Amino acid sequence: MLLTALRMLLDQPSKSLGTLLGVVVSTFLMAQQLATFLGILGRVAAFVDGADVDVWIASATTEDTDITGTVPTRYAAIARGTEGVASASTIVQGMSRAARPDGVRELVKVVGVEAPRFVGLPANRTGDLTGPSRVLVSRADRPLYGDAALGDRLEVGGRTLVVGGFFDGVDPHGNYAYMFTDVHEARAMLGMSADRATFIGVTLEPGRDAGAVAEALRARTPEARVFARSQFRAAVVQYFMARTPVGVVFGMGAFVAALVGSLVVGVTMFSSVVDRTRDFATLIAMGARRRELLSLLLAQAVLFFAVGATVGLLAFAVVKVHATSAPMLAPPWMIAAVTFGSLASCLLASIAAVRRVLSIDPAIVFKG
């Protein structure tokens, strides 16, 4: 059946190529839209995902890593006395400015972490904060600071800091860059008192359940909000989705891409059936069962899908590899979803052609 379907498609190469192009573009756009959406969400939650923190203690007003207040540092001692907690450290954050070599002052979010564990640093990093006035800079931001190298000096918040290392994977979704330094440097830079912190970062003993420990900490710090890592990530993403139209924009983009591909396939297949009405009528008159004709049309749709989706996904992979500045994430489940969506659109597009074939009267073969 597939061979017959292929022969029929090759008999009209211009139409078939146009349809394939529609499937390619549709699949590529679906993948690009969804990958960009996931990439943006990844950046929204990058701080939470990248930090080696299992449970976060935050202000009761916290809705997001940016929309938060402060908590008393004594919560760290309370956390350390809770069963299952391995460590609890203060984390301080706030906005400041870092000077570029050309004098422009870039907006940065300074995150201060507490020695000696430095809980809250990105897991993917090189170098450390050991030593006075050290700072970790995003590797992606090095060009902003004259390709800063280890040991170079940067002016941040009116203070001179020494580059102690670099990190990857914590990219902001806003118009600022992350920098990590010692909590005392951050307090001095941001003007935060020694008895307050933005977060208390908690790590757990091996094998402990983050949800259960978070619940115990809520009982002991009722005036704070306590999140397991997954809960904090969900809260950050939910806040972003509720306050921005990003989900609607990219969701509509993926839907429109699937719709365009479906329409292109449907119009082409319907047009092909109209052009071959007498051929299909002849097959019916010769005893071809409608189930066989249905299989023939579905085989054409599957061929369009197989070739078009493969080329579309390969094109997306090439763009993703080379467009490194674009925030795109493509986990296996997303590729599977795009593949299924492309197949579904092609199969649904064949319905109009199927209805047309099933309505053909074989008697037209004998008419002039």
| Average pLDDT taken over every residue | 83
Shape: elongated
Query: Considering DSSP H and I runs of 4 or more, what fraction of the residues is helical?
Result: 40-55%
Distance between the amino and carboxyl termini: 30 Å
Count of separate DSSP helical elements: 12
Structural class assignment: alpha+beta
Tally of extended strands?
12
Spell out the helices and strands N to C.
HHHEEHEEEEEEEHEEHEHHHHHH
Uncertain parts: none
Structure explained in plain terms:
- The protein has 368 residues and is an alpha+beta fold.
- The chain contains 12 helices and 12 strands.
- The strands form 2 sheets. Strands 1, 3, 4, 5, 6, 7, 8, 9, 11 and 12 form a 10-stranded mixed sheet that branches. The protein has a two-stranded antiparallel ribbon with strand order 2-10.
- β7 and β8 form a beta hairpin.
- It is elongated.
- The two termini are 30 Å apart.
- The model has no long low-confidence stretch (mean pLDDT 83).
Write a brief caption for the model.
The protein has 368 residues and is an alpha+beta fold. It has twelve helices and twelve strands.
Key traits:
368 residues, alpha+beta, ten-stranded mixed beta sheet, two-stranded antiparallel sheet, 12 strands, 50% helix, 19% strand, elongated
How do the strands and helices of this protein lay out in sequence?
Layout: H1 2-10, H2 13-44, H3 46-50, E1 55-59, E2 71-72, H4 74-80, E3 85-99, E4 105-113, E5 125-127, E6 134-138, E7 153-156, E8 159-167, E9 177-182, H5 183-190, E10 196-197, E11 199-204, H6 210-220, E12 224-228, H7 229-243, H8 246-275, H9 277-285, H10 290-322, H11 332-349, H12 351-358
Parallel strand pairs: 4-9, 6-8
Antiparallel strand pairs: 1-11, 1-12, 2-10, 3-4, 3-11, 5-8, 6-9, 7-8
Helix pairs in contact: 1-10, 2-8, 2-10, 2-11, 8-11, 8-12, 10-11, 10-12
